[in-house]
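Handoff note, outgoing to incoming analyst
You'll be picking up this chain. Sequence as last confirmed:
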Amino acid sequence: MKEAKQKKNIQKVNELLAELYDLLDHQAAKAAVQNAYNKINASDKLSVQYAEVHEAIEALKREFSRLSLAKKTKFTRAQEEIVSQLTVFTRRSFQKGFEGLGMVGVWFG
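Most recent structure output, in case you need it:
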């Protein structure tokens, strides 16, 4: 059951990445999406793919931020929405535990 859920979650991330790739017109942005996809799907092992998702999406967002700050591309609302969906989905489905809860007092105290 756990493996089926992991496979479904990875498939959802891959679908969102493919949708984002199709909407982009800037080559560096497309390359960042392709790199994220390649990082996630480099291994045939589902557990390895699952472990790579969070870092791959974070690297994608860093590259998009770099491109945006350098004014090399402007992302459309639809593209930003897909990145938001990726972020929310990976945080919910691929979180590694409760390591952030230790900082709640610092953040909100």
